[in-house]
TrEMBL record:
Keywords: Cell membrane, Disulfide bond, Immunoglobulin domain, Kinase, Membrane, Repeat, Serine/threonine-protein kinase, Transferase. Gene3D superfamilies: MHCK/EF2 kinase. This is Alpha-protein kinase 2. It comes from Mohoua ochrocephala. Pfam families: Alpha_kinase (PF02816). One of its GO terms (cellular component) is basolateral plasma membrane. It catalyses: L-seryl-[protein] + ATP = O-phospho-L-seryl-[protein] + ADP + H(+); L-threonyl-[protein] + ATP = O-phospho-L-threonyl-[protein] + ADP + H(+).
Length: 201
């Protein structure tokens, strides 16, 4: 049933969120870690709808931190601490599962999230039926921009494949922000210049 699947999805994502918290919380300067609230299945045999879910009510402004489609850019996820930490959580899960699983639809109030989704690359990954299309994973790869929290966790950039050999740099993470931004800037300028030339002809 849809309700059982919904419970399974949220509680699986919640387990990943707990592992993420265990890794992120001890890091100096990381601060509060997003939490996926538990969702409980209740059975009401006398009712027409025998299964229902119960969860804590979230009070406050409800924000969608990750998007369902790439055309919609949510600035709250880019600019808010919770939004950035949600994007890092997605990147962390993606890396932990070798790109096989992505937690999607991260939304909630502050750091408390609910109603999340899961996309899997292959049907039945770890016996899991994702409830989102695997195209979400492709989209995430294309759109994710690493932030300071990704750097704190030492996550590998999804954009630059030629930077793979630099595995030993976890100790030199202090130098990373500068060198990686410089590298990213150069191709961008070159690309803008090329567009400019081609538009003149």
């Amino acid at each position: 049933s849809v309700v059982i699947q919904e419970c399974y999805v949220q509680n699986t994502a919640r387990e990943y969120a707990k592992l993420y918290a265990a890794e992120a919380e001890p890091l100096e300067g990381f601060g509060e870690v997003p939490e996926i609230i538990p969702i409980f299945l209740i059975h009401r045999p006398a009712n027409n709808i025998p299964y229902a879910t119960v969860e804590e009510e979230l009070v406050g402004e409800f924000v969608k931190y990750s998007v369902k489609d790439g055309k919609e850019v949510n600035f709250l996820r880019r600019d808010s601490e919770a939004g950035q930490k949600c994007c890092t959580f997605q990147h962390w899960v993606y890396e932990k599962t070798n790109g096989n699983l992505l937690v999607t639809d991260l939304q909630g109030v502050g750091m408390k999230l609910t109603d999340v989704g899961i996309a899997t690359l292959a049907k039945g990954y770890k016996g899991f039926k994702g409830n989102c299309s695997f195209s979400f994973i492709e989209q995430f790869r294309a759109l994710h921009q690493c932030n300071e929290y990704c750097e704190m966790l030492g996550l590998k950039s999804l954009r630059t494949t030629h930077q793979k050999p630099r595995k030993s740099t976890s100790t030199k993470s202090k130098n990373l922000p500068n060198s990686s931004t410089v590298k990213k800037m150069v191709p961008k300028k070159a690309r803008e210049h090329r567009d400019f030339i081609s538009s003149e002809h």
